[in-house]
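yo

u said u wanted the structure for the complex thing, so here. seqs first:
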Amino acid sequence: MATAFSMFERVELQVASLAMTRVEASLRAALACATAKGCPPRLSEALEYAVFPGGGRLRPQLSLLAAAGCGDGDPAAADAAAGAVELLHCASLVHDDLPCFDDADSRRGRPALHKVYGEPIAVLVGDALIVLAFEQLGRITSSRSAALVVELAKAGGAAGGIAGGQAWEVEAAAPLEEYHRAKTASLFEAAAAMGAIAAGASPAPWRRFGELVGRAYQAADDLMDAVGQSTKAGKPTRRDFALGRPNLVRAEGVAGARARLEAMLHDTFEAIPPCDEQASVRRWLEQLTARLKVC
Amino acid sequence: MATAFSMFERVELQVASLAMTRVEASLRAALACATAKGCPPRLSEALEYAVFPGGGRLRPQLSLLAAAGCGDGDPAAADAAAGAVELLHCASLVHDDLPCFDDADSRRGRPALHKVYGEPIAVLVGDALIVLAFEQLGRITSSRSAALVVELAKAGGAAGGIAGGQAWEVEAAAPLEEYHRAKTASLFEAAAAMGAIAAGASPAPWRRFGELVGRAYQAADDLMDAVGQSTKAGKPTRRDFALGRPNLVRAEGVAGARARLEAMLHDTFEAIPPCDEQASVRRWLEQLTARLKVC
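structre next:
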């Protein structure tokens, strides 16, 4: 399974340069906490490898966009939410690349983590990053901490979250839409909702927007897997086909998948929540769109 | 690595029968949440297998003992804390048994989870249980939710928590005390501290008590690995020696390890925090002691 799409992610979206600075700072602070005294040296090194340098940090950017759209009344909470979302994402990539799943040699254009540090450390890096994500939310001095924890947990968990999404891969038949929603869209959805929650706003419109971004992202990822180059993807392609996994292109063909992606992107623009930052959100989405439509 | 000790755990400690009922109810509620609509069937079944039937539920009992010792002013928060601690423990056992770690065939007297459901599901069960543990804490309607999240995260994380503890196993040299504290004592420590926090009390004396219980438990576990029978342990023995892992018996011999265990248990009795429930805590510890001294 492939939840990341390095080609998209490695490009820093211009409109989000301030957001990128905040995201990196939040992740740096989190990593300092995880690799503090008591962390064995190889685990410490591998945690750094899993998180830095990152891809395009799309999910945490989405958190910060949503927080900005809701007035960003508590930037520290928004930064923690953004960091937590990215940490959970990094964890999912490391576990996803393990031999018992994708058995991927590369990720983000570099050797996959377990190829460098071995399987035991890869399992532990994933575990430690999940824990660290929640720890960041627990450390917020805000009454919204608990709501953020629940939101992130829904995105990572068994019922409709990332763990559930990956688990569809071992079922004889997986419902494509449910599979895509759980393995990918759930975290985009949470990312946007958590930005709104951190800012003290209602998450509902942002949750919907995030889910649509995530669905479009996964459709583009399926196209990349089916017809893209691994050098562009930063990871192996043709994996869904080789491993017999649900893929939009297998279900609807290349032209069908492209049409679906187009329709999803249209819906996503329509779903930008009314707010003072609509123009920024639109620009971010335009740049993302250009990258999602390369296949 | 072996963090569980089924022989100890399978015996329900009599003094804690009410606590056991509360723990099982908390875990049932948590599992219902994880296996709700959207959870793929095999993952759902495997989550159940990982958590039920449990061992002796020592760690969550410790949470509830500490909460009781502090007046148990918020039983729902204490139950959630106890459940979260046990979920994190179950997660660590499932990942610990994987082929890349202990490669254990059995756990709690049954086939290890990955032997029944395969490695991908075993990795995902661990991930989903970690997420679920934090979700339970996020769902508490109490201002103490965030403090509980941080406490659990410290016990599970890279710096001095379970992930860090396991990661010492891939280092060329592991400091025995640090290794034992991280892989085992950290969660006992958090279990007791979280009970106190849930009840609105200072966690410090309970944290110290929990840590000592955990250290004694690990010393007994090392003895069981070195000289016990796998039928009694409910899991393979002689693993620490076979895998070249730090073990108190390797460091100090059987007699030395027994003497250390004796001293640790003495210190643990001395560290029972002053409270109205001291007699109950003492009885619990007496029963635990009888079980820890079988080797």
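The domain at 6-286 of chain A is CATH 1.10.600.10 (Farnesyl Diphosphate Synthase). The radius of gyration of chain A is 18 Å.
cya
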